[in-house]
Protein backbone atom coordinates (compact mmCIF):
# COMPACT_ATOMS: atom_id res chain seq x y z
CA UNK A 1 0.00 0.00 0.00
CA UNK A 2 1.27 3.46 -0.79
CA UNK A 3 0.80 6.40 1.56
CA UNK A 4 -2.35 7.67 -0.20
CA UNK A 5 -3.98 4.25 0.12
CA UNK A 6 -2.93 3.98 3.77
CA UNK A 7 -4.32 7.48 4.36
CA UNK A 8 -7.69 6.53 2.83
CA UNK A 9 -7.74 3.33 4.90
CA UNK A 10 -6.97 5.25 8.12
CA UNK A 11 -9.62 7.90 7.36
CA UNK A 12 -12.19 5.14 6.90
CA UNK A 13 -11.10 3.67 10.20
CA UNK A 14 -11.62 6.97 12.02
CA UNK A 15 -15.12 7.26 10.59
CA UNK A 16 -15.91 3.67 11.59
CA UNK A 17 -14.61 4.22 15.13
CA UNK A 18 -16.66 7.38 15.52
CA UNK A 19 -19.82 5.66 14.27
CA UNK A 20 -19.41 2.44 16.24
CA UNK A 21 -17.64 3.52 19.46
CA UNK A 22 -20.70 3.80 21.72
CA UNK A 23 -22.30 0.58 20.46
CA UNK A 24 -18.99 -1.28 20.84
CA UNK A 25 -18.48 0.00 24.38
CA UNK A 26 -22.09 -0.84 25.29
CA UNK A 27 -21.74 -4.36 23.87
CA UNK A 28 -18.39 -5.26 25.45
CA UNK A 29 -18.34 -3.06 28.56
CA UNK A 30 -21.93 -2.55 29.77
CA UNK A 31 -22.51 -0.10 32.59
CA UNK A 32 -22.45 -0.22 35.54
CA UNK A 33 -20.91 -3.72 35.79
CA UNK A 34 -17.76 -3.06 33.76
CA UNK A 35 -17.23 0.64 34.43
CA UNK A 36 -13.46 0.40 35.06
CA UNK A 37 -12.76 -1.62 31.91
CA UNK A 38 -15.01 0.67 29.89
CA UNK A 39 -13.18 3.78 31.11
CA UNK A 40 -9.75 2.30 30.32
CA UNK A 41 -10.99 1.34 26.85
CA UNK A 42 -12.33 4.87 26.28
CA UNK A 43 -8.89 6.22 27.21
CA UNK A 44 -7.22 3.72 24.86
CA UNK A 45 -9.52 4.79 22.02
CA UNK A 46 -8.84 8.48 22.70
CA UNK A 47 -5.08 7.83 22.60
CA UNK A 48 -5.55 5.81 19.42
CA UNK A 49 -7.55 8.53 17.64
CA UNK A 50 -4.98 11.15 18.67
CA UNK A 51 -2.10 9.07 17.26
CA UNK A 52 -4.06 8.28 14.09
CA UNK A 53 -4.74 11.98 13.51
CA UNK A 54 -0.98 12.64 13.76
CA UNK A 55 -0.40 9.72 11.40
CA UNK A 56 -2.75 11.26 8.84
CA UNK A 57 -0.75 14.49 8.94
CA UNK A 58 2.50 12.58 8.37
CA UNK A 59 1.03 10.54 5.53
CA UNK A 60 -0.09 13.76 3.86
CA UNK A 61 3.08 15.80 4.32
CA UNK A 62 5.94 13.29 4.36
CA UNK A 63 6.15 11.26 1.13
CA UNK A 64 8.63 8.73 2.57
CA UNK A 65 6.74 8.19 5.83
CA UNK A 66 6.71 4.60 7.12
CA UNK A 67 4.24 3.25 9.65
CA UNK A 68 6.20 2.37 12.79
CA UNK A 69 3.45 1.49 15.27
CA UNK A 70 0.55 -0.96 15.42
CA UNK A 71 -2.84 0.19 14.12
CA UNK A 72 -6.14 -1.60 13.74
CA UNK A 73 -5.92 -3.59 10.53
CA UNK A 74 -2.18 -4.06 10.65
CA UNK A 75 -0.50 -7.44 10.76
CA UNK A 76 2.03 -7.73 13.55
CA UNK A 77 4.79 -10.29 13.95
CA UNK A 78 5.82 -10.76 17.55
CA UNK A 79 8.46 -13.00 19.08
CA UNK A 80 8.14 -14.56 22.52
CA UNK A 81 11.27 -13.53 24.44
CA UNK A 82 11.37 -16.78 26.43
CA UNK A 83 10.64 -19.37 23.73
CA UNK A 84 11.82 -17.31 20.73
CA UNK A 85 8.74 -18.47 18.81
CA UNK A 86 7.39 -15.92 16.32
CA UNK A 87 3.67 -15.45 15.72
CA UNK A 88 1.76 -13.11 13.40
CA UNK A 89 -1.65 -11.61 14.08
CA UNK A 90 -3.90 -9.17 12.34
CA UNK A 91 -5.32 -6.60 14.77
CA UNK A 92 -9.03 -6.23 14.10
CA UNK A 93 -12.32 -5.00 15.50
CA UNK A 94 -13.96 -7.30 18.07
CA UNK A 95 -16.66 -8.51 15.68
CA UNK A 96 -14.00 -9.71 13.19
CA UNK A 97 -11.83 -11.59 15.68
CA UNK A 98 -11.01 -15.17 14.69
CA UNK A 99 -7.97 -16.60 16.47
CA UNK A 100 -7.89 -19.61 14.12
CA UNK A 101 -7.46 -17.19 11.19
CA UNK A 102 -4.86 -15.17 13.11
CA UNK A 103 -7.17 -12.19 13.72
CA UNK A 104 -7.25 -10.81 17.26
CA UNK A 105 -9.42 -8.05 18.60
CA UNK A 106 -7.74 -4.84 19.67
CA UNK A 107 -9.81 -5.30 22.86
CA UNK A 108 -8.23 -8.68 23.71
CA UNK A 109 -5.43 -8.69 26.29
CA UNK A 110 -2.77 -9.15 23.60
CA UNK A 111 -4.48 -6.75 21.18
CA UNK A 112 -4.69 -4.01 23.83
CA UNK A 113 -0.97 -4.35 24.52
CA UNK A 114 -0.03 -4.36 20.84
CA UNK A 115 -2.22 -1.45 19.74
CA UNK A 116 0.00 1.64 19.27
CA UNK A 117 3.16 -0.32 20.15
CA UNK A 118 6.19 0.77 18.15
CA UNK A 119 8.26 -1.67 16.16
CA UNK A 120 10.99 -3.40 18.22
CA UNK A 121 9.21 -2.58 21.48
CA UNK A 122 8.57 -5.12 24.21
CA UNK A 123 5.02 -5.81 25.36
CA UNK A 124 4.02 -7.75 28.46
CA UNK A 125 0.86 -9.81 28.41
CA UNK A 126 -0.75 -11.42 31.45
CA UNK A 127 -1.38 -15.14 30.95
CA UNK A 128 -2.92 -17.65 33.38
CA UNK A 129 0.47 -18.76 34.73
CA UNK A 130 2.14 -15.34 34.88
CA UNK A 131 3.26 -12.99 32.18
CA UNK A 132 4.77 -13.35 28.70
CA UNK A 133 7.10 -10.87 27.07
CA UNK A 134 6.97 -10.31 23.32
CA UNK A 135 9.02 -8.17 20.97
CA UNK A 136 7.24 -6.45 18.08
CA UNK A 137 9.35 -7.50 15.09
CA UNK A 138 7.34 -6.43 12.06
CA UNK A 139 4.29 -4.28 11.30
CA UNK A 140 2.54 -4.25 7.94
CA UNK A 141 -0.69 -2.72 6.72
CA UNK A 142 -3.15 -4.37 4.34
TrEMBL record:
<dbReference type="InterPro" id="IPR001437">
    <property type="entry name" value="Tscrpt_elong_fac_GreA/B_C"/>
</dbReference>
<dbReference type="Pfam" id="PF01272">
    <property type="entry name" value="GreA_GreB"/>
</dbReference>
<dbReference type="InterPro" id="IPR036953">
    <property type="entry name" value="GreA/GreB_C_sf"/>
</dbReference>
<feature type="domain" description="Transcription elongation factor GreA/GreB C-terminal">
    <location>
        <begin position="69"/>
        <end position="139"/>
    </location>
</feature>
<protein>
    <submittedName>
        <fullName>GreA/GreB family elongation factor</fullName>
    </submittedName>
</protein>
<dbReference type="GO" id="GO:0003746">
    <property type="term" value="F:translation elongation factor activity"/>
</dbReference>
<keyword id="KW-0648">Protein biosynthesis</keyword>
<keyword id="KW-0251">Elongation factor</keyword>
Amino acid sequence: MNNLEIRAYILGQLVHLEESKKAMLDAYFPLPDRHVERKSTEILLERYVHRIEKLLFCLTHEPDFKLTFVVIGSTVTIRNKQSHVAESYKICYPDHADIDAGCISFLSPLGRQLLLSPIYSTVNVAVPDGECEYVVECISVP
